[in-house]
What does this fold into?
Amino acid sequence: MKQVVFGVDIGGTFSKYGLVDRTGNVLIEGSIPTDTYDNVVDYQKSLHEALEGVMIQFRDTCELKGIGFGAPNANYYKGTIEHAANLRWKGIVHFVDLFKKYYNLPIVITNDANAAAIGEGIYGGAKEMNDYLVITLGTGLGSGFVSGGELTYGFNGFAGEFGHTLALSNGRQCGCGKRGCLETYASATGIKRTVFQLMCDMTEDSELRQYNFYEITSEMIYEAALRNDPIALKAFEFTGSLLGERLADAVAITTPEAIFLFGGLAKSGEVLFKPIRESFESNLLPVYRNQIKILPSGLQDKNIAVMGASALIWKELSR
Amino acid sequence: MKQVVFGVDIGGTFSKYGLVDRTGNVLIEGSIPTDTYDNVVDYQKSLHEALEGVMIQFRDTCELKGIGFGAPNANYYKGTIEHAANLRWKGIVHFVDLFKKYYNLPIVITNDANAAAIGEGIYGGAKEMNDYLVITLGTGLGSGFVSGGELTYGFNGFAGEFGHTLALSNGRQCGCGKRGCLETYASATGIKRTVFQLMCDMTEDSELRQYNFYEITSEMIYEAALRNDPIALKAFEFTGSLLGERLADAVAITTPEAIFLFGGLAKSGEVLFKPIRESFESNLLPVYRNQIKILPSGLQDKNIAVMGASALIWKELSR
It folds into this structure.
């Protein structure tokens, strides 16, 4: 019997699931809606039916070892989802306890970026590493710090909010209520905001000037940069430089062997990685220089959300 | 037989040692010079003789379980002291390997701030905590991050250099070669530099104006603050505010249950702790607010360097 786990990525609109083996092969994937369920109990009932539907096909060949969940504002210690802004289940949801009625197996939940970090360690580029950092550059900036082989959850389970450390004093307004948070600069949304700042500061023509704020995406900025658009290039340079500087400070705290960047923006290649590395090295304390790799995630084109969630169980079983 | 360990704090001028029991009682203390030994082998020979001299008195009542060292630029993983600026032994010194010829017992080395952090966990205020942070405010700013019960050493053993994260962009020149490092503001030296900046910026009279740069100490600034000296008060407010802001960012990464401040400056009480706490809380991400304690070290008036070094062994034996 092949050992397998379910990974479930709970998003605001859809929840994606996948049946994953120990080496990261996704045997089957599927999804159910999330936002049609007012009540988490009804949601879990539907999810359970979907998972059972999948297991019918694999019952004779696979042994299910557990179910891992990635969700916004999830708390690993308590098995809860707490005040998640983009989910309909308000307050503190005891997600794992509630789901245990369906399975007598390990069930674990954590937030998306933490799941991505564990996925990188189980299936990705950090397999041989005990100390590494995963940064997800999406709408916001998520992070998962792994030290001595263990994810840093913090005393209350909510550690790893690197996106909300200060990048620039009195800087951009952040959704969290503070100003100048790193994710207001280094994220898909952040680089878009930078483009608008540069369209104001610079006089050069740019293909990006023909689009309004809602139209522009980080992919369009990347495409423009490939065509040597001056504003797009400058936006990547600014974003990379600021992120590199902040990563140098993260190194002074946890000193990872490598930093993995994941997400749409991280697919931009050297146009982003070059300014990151330059700024990173020049801001590092000398004792750390020329030792720490900044790499694209080893799971870049895979469904890291589902895989990361599934990896939680392999991690749990390895204890 | 009472179980005991030696803690040895290797300083530039003197090396202090103490025989310490599991609850932190220092049975005896002593010291040998450090800077009279060109050669680490000769130093270790003298140290061994000193320790043996101590053990003669305790041979019948105590069982020696190991020897822990705190030293600048020490590497826990490799047992080395590497390029320590204030020691005469240059390059990479394989300190632990060399000292093993004297004892068939656990011998461990780490840097001073890491040792202080482990001491806080074994003997001090963090006995019941798995996630905490110790900041030592001395000539510089040292730090030891403990996550999930383990000190964060980083992949190369040199993690925990919080004093060299950025506090102010293009700020003060730091001894490390960078600018704006936190320790150029939040340390005994840092607050002195701040006083000189304020003597330039402000017009108010101050008792501190009668001293030159070499004369002023952080104790004098504290004494002046107690007498409501406007420049001294402002210096503490600025120092505390900046440190509080930076500690809020550290929380976003590792989320400790408590932050312990140790060292001369940390004895300043509310004149320092009040601005730290105010700035800390207002810079925290909402999910962390009103949960994380900022406390003076539980070992404040003890010899934390020797005790911390000794604690390394209890920590090692608890694995």
Remarks:
- The two ends of chain B are 22 Å apart (CA to CA).
- Residues 255 and 288 of chain B are 8 Å apart (CA to CA).
